[in-house]
TrEMBL record:
Keywords: Heme, Iron, Metal-binding, Oxidoreductase, Peroxidase, Signal. Residues 1-21 form the signal peptide. This is Cloroperoxidase. Pfam families: Peroxidase_2. InterPro entries: Chloroperoxidase (IPR000028), Chloroperoxidase-like_sf (IPR036851). Residues 55-293 form the Heme haloperoxidase family profile domain.
Amino acid sequence: MSLSRALKLSTALLCFSGAVAFPSASAPPESAQKGVLIVVSPVSNDTGIKMVPDNAHPFQAPGPNDQRGPCPGLNTLANHGYLPRNGIASFEQIITAVREGFNMEHDLAGALAGFAMLARGNAFLDLVSIGGVSPLIPVLPGAIDGPKPPGGIATHGRFEGDVSMTRQDAAIGDNVHFQDSLYDELLLYVGKFGDNSPVTGNSSIVTTKVMQEFKFARFVEDQIKNPVLQYHAGRNSLSYGEAAFVLNFFANGTDGTLSTPVMGSFFRNQTFPDDWYRRSSPGNITLIGQGVDEIRNAHPVPPGANAPNGTYVLDAPINSCSDVYFNLAVENLPASYSKATGVFKQNVDTLLAAVAKAFGCPVIFPTGLSGV
Ligand code: HEM
Ligand SMILES: *[C@@H]1O[C@H](CO)[C@@H](O)[C@H](O)[C@H]1NC(C)=O
Ligand SMILES: *[C@@H]1O[C@H](CO)[C@@H](O)[C@H](O)[C@H]1NC(C)=O
Ligand SMILES: *[C@@H]1O[C@H](CO)[C@@H](O)[C@H](O)[C@H]1NC(C)=O
Ligand SMILES: *[C@@H]1O[C@H](CO)[C@@H](O)[C@H](O)[C@H]1NC(C)=O
Ligand SMILES: *[C@@H]1O[C@H](CO)[C@@H](O)[C@H](O)[C@H]1NC(C)=O
Ligand SMILES: *[C@@H]1O[C@H](CO)[C@@H](O)[C@H](O)[C@H]1NC(C)=O
């Protein structure tokens, strides 16, 4: 039971003593850069149903230097200019964009954007890549998260993880880009378990039942195929949460149903479908949490990871305000954030508070790894 946690810890200690080299010559001291103070925007009252996109946000395919990554929601928003089309965004821009495009509730958006910024962005400059490493995002001041520039949300670990729907596990294949073979598998489950529609045809409506069966099948596949599968409390719930995002944010807001052509537009083309409406009320963490429970409880898969002999070993329970919060924001973020000063420190504190708030938890300062 506790072995995988022990293993994780020994790897952690190893990385700490070996791989981390700071400060790095390529990282200018904080005083040489100008930080950008993060200010959490007030809750907007523009949270009703409306057609998306509006005329000011036409689809435009990304250029060769534009960042796109593992999140179909953020990719779509960038393709329509709700996020900067280069795929480099601030905390505030992400919160505004996910509300405009999908009616994601303010605090849920703040937790995701805050965690992304702390896990894989530059919290001093308030910039995160929705794809991979970008020349626009330099190493953190004092190289306190290691000598490399922040990896963007496409970088495996901390946020991007195993048992995704349409991306492979990093240890198996392409964990960043849309994979036709996995999407085809999802469509098989819609064909088997989906609802009928007079408009889009029989077995064309994506339902909770579809996600219950598909998500379990994806876990079973990856548990066998991925010798280093990691499905700890944070990633476990995020992965089910992403399935709940599909049902709750991709659905047509007029009637809340999600048809396969609409889902295909988001996943395949990363475009808003024609004549599509965002949901009619803000989608918050309570709603998504209910979705997670409903999907996971059909075939419960508790947090754990594969042991070297290929057995899925369950994690010891986490005794904290929320095991998901604790695993993500405390265990998965670098303890070296405690070295931040000035604007950088203010931003770190603001972002940590944004993550804790959505979970209704007090802030616990990160104790996790650096430089990985
Ligand atoms: C608010 C800021 C957001 C951040 C920082 C974010 C970040 C991410 C990241 C890092 C992943 C990759 C996780 C993985 O599968 O390994 C992901 C996946 C995903 N995101 Fe987002 N996301 C955000 C908002 C949204 C929104 C608004 C939607 C839907 C409208 C969305 C839908 C999804 C879906 C469906 C996946 C899973 C893709 C798959 O499994 O194939 N996300 N997101
Ligand atoms: C939202 O608030 C603004 C001012 O803060 C006001 O002008 C507008 O009418 C409000 N909109 C709605 C839908 O309540
Ligand atoms: C769809 O299902 C209904 C009810 O099961 C059936 O009557 C109808 O023939 C089916 N339509 C198509 C196009 O297969
Ligand atoms: C994706 O875009 C192509 C080209 O515009 C279009 O032919 C196709 O129908 C779209 N697919 C979906 C699922 O929207
Ligand atoms: C969304 O629902 C409305 C009302 O039922 C409908 O007119 C529209 O075509 C739907 N949009 C899509 C993309 O299915
Ligand atoms: C979350 O959204 C639901 C509706 O989906 C609403 O009933 C509830 O009050 C919201 N919770 C919070 C904490 O805002
Ligand atoms: C596989 O390894 C785990 C962790 O070391 C251990 O608990 C389990 O008993 C082993 N199972 C088999 C079948 O060897």
